[in-house]
Amino acid sequence: MRPVDHVTPRLGLRENLPQFVLLVAVNALVGGMVGQERTVVPLLAEAEFGLASYSAMLTFIVAFGLTKAVVNYFAGTLADRFGRKPVLVAGWLAALPVPLLLMWAPTWEWVVIANILLGLNQGLTWSLTVIMKIDLVGPHRRGLAMGLNEAAGYGAVALAAWVTGAAATEFGLRPAPFLLGVAVGALGLGLSAVAVRETAGHVAEESRTHVRRDASLDAAVPARRVFALATWREPALSSASQAGLVNNLNEGAAWGLFPVLFVAGGLSTGRVGLLIAIAPAVWAIGQLVTGAVSDRIGRKWLIAAGQWTEAAGLVTIALGDGVAVWAAGSALFGAGTALAYPTLLAAVGDVAHPAWRGAAVGVYRFWRDIGFAVGAVLAGVLADAFGVATAIVVVAAVTAASGLDVAGRMYETRPPHARSGA
């Protein structure tokens, strides 16, 4: 990894505000790319491709999750080795065919292929916007940075879910809703290639002044050891990886089953799109607060409380009936995710040394996004066997158990200087 600026970079949100804002905008586009699928693609499975099995229908989420997970792992390592910007641009190149494939796919297999490319796009671009923002702000405002990053991304998911649902109601499930993806891909590639600047110099500067929490976690950590630390050896990192996996397990189940549940309840595609948008909208707005709050009061209990709140929202949706109850459950689900999602990323950034932070974030995001595939398979099998509501209740129970693991295993990771308000 090579710094590109000859002037010593300064760390901090205010010091890097223009680039930080640009990266927030880029991540909003990343969210828009995946958000174009949230309402429409689950409905395409039966309406246009005749898939009656939930397990078959959710194969597109399995393909997306597995691809994104593997790419996340390598994205962090590649970013540490070759620099941030080239990897970001490569991610946007992978996005360009996605909406075209969704528009014109002749069989369901082409939708699955589109989601492999979407997983490649999301794994590279979302990983890099996360890593680059952490690079820019340094240790003092890491939670705020992650809150803003995730708020932009999931705010765009919500907006895209609503817009594509409305377009599908007016013009049909294809091709009109996916024109949004064409515009998003072109704009994301242009901004990343032309306006985004490399942040490798900021990593070098933070490494120079980094104070180690644990002398064994110094800069010279090989990739194999980073994987072990973030998976089972380091309590906070491994607990974060577990919680991240479960967070996206319930997200994958929600992505696949919520539209089907709401349509079965007699709602129009437009109304379904509005309901689907509630959770990521609350999630996005909440993260504007929760990331910064975690910088003040700590990470651990926000993560645990978030997972318990997610579980409550899932149960409300599964056992409820009608728009008002489903909207309340979606809001609870989004609020819980807002508590946990940016805080988990901040906790990983707290523990990892700047020299291998990109790799650690990659391992965390690998396990987190395996959750999409696990959630889709679990939800599909359970929904086929016992019905959609039962599948969602089981996912809620798994989410609540994950919160208990965080409460028991994770230590408080917020740096000491942050606790004192420095």
Task: Give structural notes.
The protein is an all-alpha fold and 422 residues long. The chain has a single domain, classed as Up-down Bundle (Growth Hormone, Chain: A). It contains 18 helices and no strands. Helix 11 crosses helix 16, helix 12 packs antiparallel against helix 13 and helix 14 runs antiparallel to helix 17. The chain is globular and about 60 Å long. The chain starts with 16 loop residues before the first helix and ends with a helix. The N terminus is likely disordered.
Please tag this protein with its features:
single chain, 422 residues, Growth Hormone, Chain: A, 0% strand, disordered N terminus
The CATH architecture is Up-down Bundle
Radius of gyration: 20 Å
Number of strands: 0
What is the C-level CATH assignment?
Answer: Mainly Alpha
Question: What is the succession of H and E elements?
Answer: HHHHHHHHHHHHHHHHHH
Superfamily (CATH H level) name: MFS general substrate transporter like domains
